[in-house]
Design brief:
The protein has twelve helices and 15 strands. By secondary structure, it is α/β, with parallel strands linked by helices. It binds pyridoxal-5'-phosphate.
Length: 409
């Protein structure tokens, strides 16, 4: 028989969201009248804004008047120009168009990017973290087996704790690749300029590469906080950045994102010569990907139009109002809550020292509310719980009220 990729066998069984789905389905079967409120999965709940819908309609009509075949490799200039101007130049960062690679998602990008690096590279992740970073490296064979705590051999885990404001600094040892995500999923924490400057200094002195996931940059409320790692001096020599239209503009089902690979970021070949990662990624992207549809890139460009920017900002504000209510409501009820100020996630300590999954069950039983167990994002998430702000104000208010009642305050 044909051999499989055995590294897949190392992956932890029972992926987080299927297990949540299974428990919720079982509960609903036993309690058919319970109206369960889901504050679990991080997915948008508001429809696409009018400016984006108009752009989609117009682009569809254009498709009927001339052939739009394969688009330019790495994305249409109209979209890359808007990105370079609004996401970078407006914040004092100079990024060239051939450093931007339009894609169909940051999940894909954050999973695919490891392909251009040697399988022998070491890596670090903050713990807890977005599961894609670890799992894709396990699949590639860059790790050993997981130990009984769920930590894979060959990965350096940097615990994100209350003591370090859930924004750990760089490791003491040298590693080749560092995954960072700010604003963070799942902790809702945001990195300061000082924190990112530490990372950039570390990467430069260790010849390491930072893979920076900024999927939630639009949720940052304080203009002083960095939205891009390239706002940190020297980062264009050591970092790759991923940004997505998914959360900022409701594109989770529409699919558009981009990865920025500055030409100055270098890796080393077996013979010791410096090689531009931009050239490698360009090769990878053009070999394995045939670009995001024209209509979708037009829709993404509309996010930067004056109307599109204003309307999507309103949506972000709507979710952030939910975050404010959850953080305030649960805080008043005596829970220890974190995040939620620059991110659509609230990270809470489970009451009474309950395990993440025990609290999941209690919350479902007593309050009919679904959240996400922190332990599903990494061993250091044990004893914590993620509440998402992606829902309606009404459901959020109702959920807070039920949690207060269910947990005796
Ligand atoms: C939602 C999310 C993404 C976005 O993924 P897309 O594939 O662009 O929808 C990326 N990183 C993190 C941490 C996320 O939570």
């Amino acid at each position: 028989m044909t051999r499989i990729n055995d590294h897949y066998q190392k992956l932890q069984a029972g992926y987080l969201f299927p297990e949540i789905g299974r428990r919720v389905a079982a509960f609903q079967q036993d309690n058919p009248d319970a109206a369960v409120i889901k504050l679990g999965i991080g997915d948008v709940t508001l429809p696409l804004v009018p400016a984006i819908i108009e752009a989609l309609h117009a682009a569809v009509d254009e498709m009927g008047s001339q052939a739009y075949g394969y688009g330019p490799e790495n994305g249409y200039p109209f979209l890359k120009e808007a990105i370079a101007q609004h996401d970078y130049a407006a914040r004092g960062v100079e990024i060239a168009l051939d450093e931007i690679f339009v894609s169909d998602g940051s999940k894909q990008d954050s999973g695919n990017v490891q392909e251009i690096f040697d399988v022998g590279n070491t890596l670090c992740v903050t713990d807890p973290s977005y599961p894609v970073y670890v799992d894709t490296n396990v699949m590639a064979g860059r790790t050993g087996d997981a130990d009984e705590t769920g930590r894979f051999q060959g990965i350096t885990y940097l615990p994100a704790t209350e003591d370090n404001a859930f924004t750990p600094g760089p490791p003491n040892e040298r590693v080749d690749l560092a995954y960072l995500c700010s604003p963070n999923n799942p902790t809702g924490a945001v990195a300061t300029k000082e924190n990112l400057a530490q990372w950039v200094a570390w990467a430069r002195s260790n010849d390491a590469v930072i893979l920076f996931d900024a999927a939630y940059d639009a949720f940052i409320q304080d203009p002083e906080l960095p939205r891009s790692i390239f706002e940190i001096e020297g980062a264009t020599e050591c970092a790759i950045e991923m940004r997505s239209f998914s959360k900022r503009a409701g594109f989770t089902g529409t699919r558009c994102a981009y990865m920025t690979v500055p030409k100055a970021v270098m890796g080393r070949s077996a013979s010791g010569e410096a090689v531009s990662l931009n050239a490698l990624w360009s090769r990878r992207h053009s070999t394995k990907f045939n670009e995001v549809p024209y209509v979708i890139q037009k829709a993404a460009a509309a996010v930067f139009s004056p109307d599109g920017a204003a309307q999507t900002a309103e949506q972000v504000a709507y979710y952030m109002e939910n975050a404010r209510r959850i953080r305030g409501g649960l805080g008043d009820a005596g829970f220890a809550v974190f995040g939620g100020e620059h991110a659509p996630y609230i990270w809470m300590r489970t009451p009474g020292g309950a395990s993440s999954w025990d609290f999941f069950d209690q919350l479902l039983e007593r309050s009919h509310v679904v959240g996400t167990p922190g332990s599903g994002f990494g061993p250091a998430g044990e004893g914590y719980f993620r509440i998402s702000a992606f829902n309606s104000h009404e459901n959020v208010d109702e959920a807070i009220e039920r949690i207060r009642k269910g947990f005796g305050s």
